[in-house]
Amino acid sequence: MTKIVPCIWYDGTAEDAATFYAATFPDSRVDAVHCAPGDYPAGHKGDVLTVEFTVCGMAFLGLNGGPGYPHSNAVSFMVYTDTQEETDRYWDAIVGNGGSENACGWCQDRWGLSWQITPRTLMAALSNPDPAAAKRGFEAMMTMRKIDIAAIEAAIQG
Prior knowledge:
four-stranded mixed sheet, 5 helices, 2,3-Dihydroxybiphenyl 1,2-Dioxygenase, domain 1, 2 domains, alpha/beta
């Protein structure tokens, strides 16, 4: 068992979110759903209190803590992709199910969590040993919402 697990605060929708993530990403599942043994500030005895889930092999805990703490871009989940098809699939699943697009490969799911759908090609471009190629890759990324791998590759080539 892992020693540290990120706990994500939800307003009564932890199970819905965990189910969506399990259906969207590989090596993902809902591991356990725990109901409250008594009333609490955001719910009642018998309501779903916590959900243990795994996304891409990483364990999380969803807590139905109420409306007190909305998500922000201060924490995001970066998912590395290997192909445009994989990039499109994750992006479209998140944005197409009530989420929203942001710049530079960032998007938000319908629960307000921020995701970075990041092709490995982009990371390689930004760390290119040729500073001019890295700059071209960076400048191309800055014009995008969903990352276009072919456009990043073309920018690197000049």
